[in-house]
Amino acid sequence: MRMLNGLPVSRGFVSGPVFLFRSTGSEQIPEYRIEPQDVSRENARLTDAFTLTKTQINSLANELKKRISGDEASIFDGHLMMLDDASFVGSCADKIKKELFNAEMAVNAVAEHYFSIFAAMDDVYLKERAKDVSDISKRIIQNLLGRGEVAISRLDRPSIIVADELSPSETITLPRNMILGFATDRGSATSHASLLARALGIPAVAGLGTISEVVKTGDLLLLDGTRGKVVLNPDGEEFAAFDKMVERSESIRVTLEQDRLTKGATSDGHMVPFLANIDHSTPMTDLYAVGAEGVGLYRTEYLWMAYEREPTEEEQTHAYTAAVRAMPEGFPVTIRVLDLGGDKITGNAAAHKEANPFLGNRSIRYLLRNRDVFRRQLRAILRASAHGSVQIMYPMIAAVEELQAANIELLSCMSDLKQEGIPFDENMRRGVMIEIPAAAIIADTLANEADFFSIGTNDLIQYSLAVDRLNETVARLYQPTHPGVLHLINIAIQAAHHHGQKVAVCGETAADPFLAVLLIGMGVDELSMSPNLIPLVKKVVRQVKLDDTKLLADEVRHMAGLSAEKIYTHCRNFVLKFMPDLMYMQ
Ligand code: PEP
Ligand code: MG
User: Fold this and answer.
1) Burial of 77 (0-12, 13-18, 19+ CB in 10 A)
2) Residues above pLDDT 90, as percent of the chain
């Protein structure tokens, strides 16, 4: 089969020769028993291999930090922790001493043991650590065998890397100037290698099934990371069509660059502010570069994850204030209180050990049970509000009494600060995230206690369709255009407007240009998304009139009896009429 479909994990088009990357660990590992007198020699080999591995990982980590900022830059922290883990190192030495394993066999046995423990964990974060264990053990074994980066040294011209799966350390070890793209049998949009590909701007398609079995080094490949397709050894016609697509996507990119500082609006001047989703590590200068008109979602839990503990009130105040100060006057910064839980956990995972973490003591529920933690954060947000236009936002609200309790705590912190003579914005606006289906249904009641809504479609879809947002096997059931989801969004919009309030969308649906147009037609007032996606979506919105968006929303309302897929296709075709070139970007 020459055309393969997979998962689009990093946008962009590229063509070039294949370099078939065989993961180093797939080669045979020599396993044998040693003589008792050879134990110390084997232990010395082990120590040398650990030391060399640590040096390599440190230099990879530094290299990565030079290339990208943000959370992806700390991917190797887990590897380094593993190399320093006394019980991991000790268990390997024990296997050599007590069971007379050769060093390679000792590392392999201990790694398999650790791998099976991590892989069996329910917790998504700890499950991911299984991949770190296998990545690091492969590297130690390669170093024991003195093989170094043999496979990579054969990469002598810019190529598309094809592999069964790539680990983060393999991804970053590959020389950037030699990589045109990635195409892998396995992996998903959320795997570490995909995150890295996106952060490095390298087009990638994952989940292609058996591509590494059907190609050989030197084959020609067309890779479409935007739609998740590859074509093997294309004919002249396929090549010409692809070239045209690359050319068009480039020209769109240039116009995006020119338009980036215009305000978000439809072509007839209906303003739709484009806000950014950020965390503490987002370089604020990037927001200016993409033309963000404020921050629609500051995910504070990443601070907890970075510190691996609760940041102090001072540390939080400092982080929030830095974001507020970096924004031009009048640009809002919407700070969401701690949304810890589910897939977002701290290093102190034990504190979150629950059978169903996505349905557990997370987010606002956790804060309402840990009032001291909540109060420290509220105080920090209030203190930051003295420096600009801060809005507070409560996540995972399911019931009006949660919102009331949160507001009471906020008022109490305000009165404390007043007594202490610490300045803050007494009129700070309070928002509610609509991301639990019940919250959408009772939105009318919630609006009495808040100033605005922000619809978190990532969770709203997950909770209303009972589809895990991280599980690649049910990824096709995760449907933003499911009529049930659209109905919930509609209820929330109507409720907000009935109370004269604004409603934003800060889930990924806002960043899909076809759906952004639909959301505006449904009445959404603001869109918030990853900064790098703002220019494209803004451009698309500028091609349509407000009435066009309303027409689309009307048509979709009449499609409630149809499948999510049909509705999505309708939105896509509708928007493509206004901007045919978008086909080359999506
Ligand atoms: C959402 O749920 O849509 C959202 C924006 O929040 P998060 O992705 O942080 O859960
Ligand atoms: Mg959410």
Assistant:
1) middle
2) 51
